[in-house]
Specification:
This protein folds into two domains: 223 residues, NAD(P)-binding Rossmann-like Domain (Rossmann fold, 3-Layer(aba) Sandwich), CATH 3.40.50; 217 residues, 3-Layer(aba) Sandwich (Rossmann fold), CATH 3.40.50. By secondary structure, the chain is α/β, with parallel strands linked by helices. It is built from 18 helices and 14 strands. The termini are far apart. Helix 5 crosses helix 6, helix 9 packs across helix 11 and helix 9 runs parallel beside helix 12. The structure holds nicotinamide-adenine-dinucleotide (NAD). Nicotinamide-adenine-dinucleotide (NAD) binds next to helix 1 and helix 5.
């Protein structure tokens, strides 16, 4: 395999995982972050985010993996530079590209400074890779900013670089696995040589020729999708918007199921076996959240509106999702009557299991709503609890699900952590106060066992 010097800007969920995986397969990787404390922590061998397998992978790859705040130094030494910084939603819902822009400008300046100080030893153009999720047109925008940055240093601003779009599809909670065994690798570029470099970089992952222990390997080779910049950027938004819509679709069906007395779990099973539909992302409940779906759907809606198109379907996807969180409150109100003075336990706080990420987690809004109606809220999460404490000062956080249930009049399953899915209904019922209401926001508990244990079970669309 051809070994590359790789720079990754942004040592967050995406950048750190990407860097560690590329080092694991044999490249030399420098991860850059502006957060000095984060870089110092990583230097000391501590991984600042929770992601299964990541700490081990970072430790195993340390020989080829470094951490720094020195972006110009990394630009000079890199063949390929990934931009993996955050692109949060701006006030109007569109993606805020200020971090991406700042990095692109600095890259241009660093390239031009290297040229000026005695010419570049570079054998090929620097490939600048947009891994952050960015709207259509961002590849061109990054290219323009690199040039502008270079012009701040030299009049002509002539520097040798290419821009590639390489959107990321990893899922938090299984990010390492998804990066080593991706369903596909999407590459968008205008220049052939940039695509060739990227193909060579990813060869060990495409051919699955990296060292164990990340078995089992689900497939022999990974397909590339090569396209123009704009289409690659659109693929990412379209993928997330589709998945969010699929969840909102089944939630709409669940609401109707509840009215007519059908069971949405059976319906999802019945339709999911149809190969054209597929079984995944058909779990009814409190809906989607997290750092990607909400902001990416909102960014796609903003792009559509910018071009004069009303994104009717995406608007509905969002409003169904908002309704699901309110449905939790309605279910609590129906059986508790008033929430004032009641104790409500939230089982799980992270937006999904196996992550400590609380960005746009449904738990946050549910906790706020329940608290505003006068209830005391106690939250359990095995990993995200500490972060939740800082975000919600009124939330009592515990690290044992049964401690959360002690004296609770109602409990809401928010995140399907293993500890929650395997909850013992008898023990739960023995700890709770009447009416012992259990709102199963993920439809993961067995209604019959809950009912026979004395819990008042309420799922979503389960008849
Ligand atoms: N988290 C996911 O599951 C996921 C999946 C696919 C795509 N994405 C996309 O990847 C991008 C990164 O997401 P994330 O979740 O890893 O974000 P994150 O917030 O975890 O990490 C971003 C990192 O970038 C650093 N940073 C910001 N500006 C910088 C600068 N100018 N110079 C150096 N470092 C800088 C921050 O300090 C932070 O450590 C986003 O565009 C996101 O939409 C995320």
């Amino acid at each position: 395999m051809e070994e590359f010097n790789v720079g990754v800007v942004g040592a967050g969920y995406v950048g750190l995982v990407t860097g560690a995986c590329l080092a694991h397969v044999g490249h030399r990787v420098a991860c850059v972050d502006k957060n000095e404390a984060r870089v110092a922590e990583l230097e000391e061998g501590r991984v600042p985010i929770y992601e299964p397998g990541l700490e081990e992978l970072v430790a195993r790859s340390r020989k080829r993996l470094s951490f720094t705040t020195d972006l110009p130094g990394v630009v000079r030494n890199s063949d390929v530079l990934f931009i993996a910084v955050d692109t949060p939603p701006g006030e109007d819902g569109s993606a805020d590209l200020s971090s991406v822009g700042a990095v692109a400008r600095s890259v241009g300046r660093a390239l031009a400074e290297a040229e000026r100080e005695g010419g570049s030893a570079r054998e090929r153009p620097l490939v600048v890779v947009n891994k952050s999720t960015v709207p259509v047109g961002s590849g061109d925008y990054v290219s323009m900013l690199v040039r502008e940055g270079a012009q701040e240093v030299t009049a002509g601003g002539e520097v040798d670089y290419r821009v590639v779009s390489n959107p990321e599809f990893l899922r938090e909670g299984s990010a390492v696995y998804d990066s080593m065994f991706p369903d596909r690798i999407v590459l968008g570029a205008e220049k052939r040589d940039a695509l060739d470099t990227m193909r060579a970089l990813y060869e060990p992952i495409v051919e699955q020729t990296f060292p164990t222990p990340l078995d089992p390997r689900p497939r022999d080779t990974v397909p590339f999708v090569t396209t123009d910049l704009a289409s690659a950027e659109m693929i990412k938004y379209a993928a997330n918007a589709f998945l969010a819509t699929k969840i909102s679709f089944i939630n709409e069906v669940a609401t109707v199921c509840e009215l007519v007395g059908a069971d949405v779990s059976s319906v999802a099973n019945g339709i999911g076996l149809d190969g054209r539909i597929g079984a995944r992302f058909l779990n009814a409940g409190i809906g989607w959240g997290g750092s990607c779906f909400p902001k990416d759907v909102s960014a796609l809606r903003a792009v559509a509106r910018e071009y004069g198109h009303e994104p009717t379907l995406l608007d509905a996807t969002v409003s169904v999702n908002e309704r699901q969180k309110k449905a939790v409150i309605q279910k609590l109100q129906r059986d508790l009557r008033t929430l004032k003075g009641k104790r409500v336990a939230l089982l799980g706080l992270a937006f999904k299991p196996n992550t400590d990420d609380l960005r746009e987690a449904p738990s946050l809004e549910i906790a706020r709503l329940v608290h505003s109606l006068g209830a005391r809220v106690v939250g359990y999460d095995p990993v995200a609890g500490k972060k939740a404490r800082t975000l919600l000062p009124d939330l009592q956080v515990v690290f044992d699900p049964y401690e959360a249930l002690e004296g609770a009049h109602a409990a809401v399953v928010v995140t399907e952590w293993e500890e929650v899915v395997e909850l013992d209904p008898e023990r739960a019922a023995s700890l709770m106060e009447a009416p012992k209401l259990l709102v199963d926001g993920r439809n993961v508990l067995d209604p019959a066992s809950c009912l026979s244990a004395g819990l008042l079970y309420r799922g979503f669309g389960r008849g």
